[in-house]
Each structure stands twice: as structure tokens, then as C-alpha cells.
């Protein structure tokens, strides 16, 4: 069995859930991490994914522990980053997880920095002389970068090693899956229509990948109180810089139509984004273009890690607002605890 170290909440005994059949629906970071930790705990896991929601695959994988004012998400992010660092180059292949310094700045009209930043490793205030134009304060914090596309590939290989069965299939109703003791709903935004969950308030985001210029490193973000708070994430493992930060609220119905249409990229927003980020980082203005991707953030009124009220077999793990890569290991550990508690009942 793979050893995940002494991280709290991570199952290390293959007998904990020995032989318990569990289905996980959703192949994003949360679903794949959950399948991994369940299998490590001895469960017989089947992972269902139809590939229709691609947010975990395209995002930049920035692990910034307090990137949300929601205390629950911030806590999950902190735990997630700790788990990534403990598993780096041991459970996860070399290069999937890298440490970076993140420089984050904000304008006067932007929301204040979340509480708790001063507790992060390496935290310091940015010298006022180093602030960009129109920025009023900035911080430099320790963070991790975990490219979603590399992470999902690495987890898929670990699944094979642990005997997880992968099924490329659309599941119209996860509760209909038979012959399992538990079903984990890790479908993200799809929960809005699978379970008629109207608490989702999705937003569309676009990222542009550029070839990383020589010497470029780090993570940079500016909250300039516009509908585009640009960021640039250097990914050593892919050789790319991921530029993003756009937010376009959409209805659940619009999001589903976009998914059904094949998740087409928003090229116009991508062009706007490149122009915006170049005003902060001129070095990216002439960087080689790779591609543009668009995804839907599964934002929700609150996160949901809980057993279904009507079907005790179903455990929901949704509503992480596009931070799935960062929080996934911690969420998965909580799901394993819920499954174990259900077995004891």
C-alpha cells in the first residue's frame, strides 16, 4: 500500500475499509483523490467519469491557503497544502508538486486580505516601493503549484496500482448505482442538475497558457477591483505560465448548455486577459501562445461534505468554488471518515 506519511486524517491501514464496495462519481481532483484514499483504506472502488466537466484539468493549480474568506474552505486549503507537501515526490511523482512564492496585491476598492495570512510560512508584507500602479498593499506568501492536468494523470496511475476500476460513463443518477455500500457524489457543478441543488452560483473563468519565458518564476496576482483579478502562475513541470482571473457569472441552465456544447473556450475573453496581464507583467506580452481554456467554477452558498438526507448511502463532496485542486486531499480524507463511520453503523 502507498504510504501517505503521518498526515492527520489520511488512512494508512488497508483493513480500515477492507472489501467495502464504494462508487465515486466525478473524475475531477476531489473525485480522484477520494478514490485514491478509499482504495488505500482497503475499499473496492469504482470511479465513474464522463469527462464533461474540465475545471480540474485546466486550472493553474495554485495552492494558496487563505484564498477564501470562507473559514471552512481556508481550513481545507491549509490541510490540502500540508498533504501535498508530505506526499510530494513520495506518493505523487517528482515534479507534480512544486513550492513557489506568491506575490498578491490589491487595490483600494478590493476586498481586504483574509485573516490568517500572517500565520503562513514565509509571510511578509510587500515593500510599498514594489507595489504595482494603483495597488495599496501586497503580501508575499509561501504556496504550492499543482498543475491539474499532471495531478489527474498521476492519480489515475495510482488508481491502477491500487485496483480502482475506472468507468468512462455518464451517470444520470448516482443513487441508481447498485451493488455498492456507498456512493460518493464528487460531480461538482453537475450536482446542480443531478440533485436539483439550487445553492450553486456558477461562474465562468478563462485561462490562457503561454510558454514560460526564460527566467520567469513565481505566482503573481492583482485584485484591482474589476471583474478580472489577473494572475500568472509559473508551472515548472509543464513549462507554461497560466494566466487567468476572469469571472463571468452564469445561471445553472447556462452552465449546463455550455457543458452540453462541449465546453468551448472563450477566445475573446482570453485576448482581453492577455492584454490586462501584460500591463502588470510586460515579460508575458511576447511569450509564445499555447492555448485558451474555459471552465465553470462550481461555486455554492457553502461547501457540502455530508451524507445525503434522503439516502444514507450517498455522500456529497461538492461546492468548492474552483479550488478543487487545493482542497481535494483534505476533502477526500473527510469523505473516508464518513464512509468509515457509515460502516460502523
Automatic annotation (TrEMBL):
It is an enzyme of class 1 (oxidoreductase). GO terms for molecular function: D-amino-acid oxidase activity; FAD binding. The keyword Oxidoreductase applies. One of its GO terms (cellular component) is cytoplasm. Residues 22-338 form the FAD dependent oxidoreductase domain. It comes from the Bacteria. One of its GO terms (biological process) is D-amino acid catabolic process. It catalyses: a D-alpha-amino acid + O2 + H2O = a 2-oxocarboxylate + H2O2 + NH4(+). Pfam families: DAO. Keywords: FAD, Flavoprotein, Oxidoreductase. Its EC number is 1.4.3.3. Its cofactor is FAD. Belongs to the DAMOX/DASOX family. This is D-amino-acid oxidase.
Amino acid at each position: 500500500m502507498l504510504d501517505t506519511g503521518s498526515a492527520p486524517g489520511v488512512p494508512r491501514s488497508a483493513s480500515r475499509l477492507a472489501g467495502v464496495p464504494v462508487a465515486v462519481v466525478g473524475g475531477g481532483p476531489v473525485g480522484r483523490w477520494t478514490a485514491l484514499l478509499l482504495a488505500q483504506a482497503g475499499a473496492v472502488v469504482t470511479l465513474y467519469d464522463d469527462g464533461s466537466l474540465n475545471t480540474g484539468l485546466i486550472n493553474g493549480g495554485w495552492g494558496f491557503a487563505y484564498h477564501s474568506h470562507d473559514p471552512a474552505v481556508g481550513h481545507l486549503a491549509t490541510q490540502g497544502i500540508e498533504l501535498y507537501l508530505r506526499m510530494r515526490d513520495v506518493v505523487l511523482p517528482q515534479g507534480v508538486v512544486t513550492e513557489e512564492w506568491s506575490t498578491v496585491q490589491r487595490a483600494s476598492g478590493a476586498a481586504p486580505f483574509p485573516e490568517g495570512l500572517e500565520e503562513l510560512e514565509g509571510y511578509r508584507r510587500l515593500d510599498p516601493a514594489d507595489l504595482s500602479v494603483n495597488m495599496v498593499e501586497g503580501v508575499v506568501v509561501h504556496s504550492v503549484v499543482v498543475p491539474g492536468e499532471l495531478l489527474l494523470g498521476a492519480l489515475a496511475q495510482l488508481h491502477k496500482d491500487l485496483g480502482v476500476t475506472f468507468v468512462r460513463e455518464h451517470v444520470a443518477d448516482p443513487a441508481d448505482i447498485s451493488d455498492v455500500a456507498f456512493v460518493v457524489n464528487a460531480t461538482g457543478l453537475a450536482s446542480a442538475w443531478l440533485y436539483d441543488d439550487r445553492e450553486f452560483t456558477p461562474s465562468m473563468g478563462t485561462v490562457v497558457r503561454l510558454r514560460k519565458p526564460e527566467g520567469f518564476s513565481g505566482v503573481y496576482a492583482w485584485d484591482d477591483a474589476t471583474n478580472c483579478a489577473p494572475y500568472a502562475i509559473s508551472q515548472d513541470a509543464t513549462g507554461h505560465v497560466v494566466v487567468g482571473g476572469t469571472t463571468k457569472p452564469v445561471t445553472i441552465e447556462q452552465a449546463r448548455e455550455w457543458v452540453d456544447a462541449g465546453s468551448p473556450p472563450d477566445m475573446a475573453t482570453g485576448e482581453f486577459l492577455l492584454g490586462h496581464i501584460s500591463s502588470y507583467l510586460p515579460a508575458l506580452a511576447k511569450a509564445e501562445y499555447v492555448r485558451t481554456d474555459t471552465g465553470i467554477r462550481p461555486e455554492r452558498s457553502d461547501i457540502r461534505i455530508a451524507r445525503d438526507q434522503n439516502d444514507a448511502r450517498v455522500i456529497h463532496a461538492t461546492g468548492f468554488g474552483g479550488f478543487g485542486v487545493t482542497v481535494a486531499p483534505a476533502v477526500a480524507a473527510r469523505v473516508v471518515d464518513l464512509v468509515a463511520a457509515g460502516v460502523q453503523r
